[in-house]
Amino acid sequence: MEYTIITLFSLAIILFIISFFKKDRNKEVEKQIENFSITLMQEIYQLKKKVKVLEEEILIGQDERYFTVDQTSSSQTIDRDKVLSLYEEGYSLDEIEDLTNLSREQIDQLLSEA
Questions:
Q1: Distance CA 36, CA 44 (A)
Q2: What is the count of structural domains for the chain?
Q3: What percent of the chain lies above the pLDDT cut of 90?
Q4: Domain for residue 10, yes or no?
Q5: Hey, how many other C-beta atoms are within 10 angstroms of the C-beta on 86?
Q6: Any stretches that span the bilayer, and where are they (predicted)?
Q7: Is 24 helix (H, G, I), strand (E, B) or coil?
Q8: Which residues contact 79 (CB under 8 A, 6 or more apart)?
Q9: Fewer Cβ atoms within 10 A, N terminus or C terminus of the chain?
């Protein structure tokens, strides 16, 4: 009986000592997660700085001509494309005039530009 108690006690001491030298896997995983989160925070910070710089550049370069659309130019482009597609489909100039509500001179001008 005494030998059993002594053996169990010595085994407990040996296992206790081994537990100090054994690596803790949880600490290793926690360290990896911490490094990953630090890396993500750094990247987010850099992205925020870049976005802020871009926003400042946009505000500095802000000019009304960048934000206003020339309606005559865009509508002329749309009309020209529409007139060209109708002309290529074989519509006559009178039919194009009726479909687009443009004058004959405007249609001739748009076709001559193309």
A1: 12
A2: 2
A3: 32
A4: no
A5: 17
A6: 6-21
A7: coil
A8: 100, 102, 106, 110
A9: N
Q: Is residue 17 part of a domain?
A: no
Write out the residue range of the structural domain in which residue 84 sits.
69-113
**Structure-block tokens of residue 45:** 């910070």
pTM of the model: 0.37
Q: Which two tokens stand for residue 104?
A: 């004959």
End-to-end CA distance of the chain: 110
Are 77 and 49 in a shared domain?
A: no
Amino acid at 66: Y
* Segment 49-64, tens digit of pLDDT: 999 988 888 887 665 4
Could you tell me which residue, 45 or 83, shows the higher pLDDT?
45
Q: Are 92 and 105 in contact (CB under 8 A)?
A: no
- Look up residue 47 and give its two tokens: 């992205």
Report yes or no on 11 lying in a domain.
no
- Are 30 and 48 found together in one domain? yes
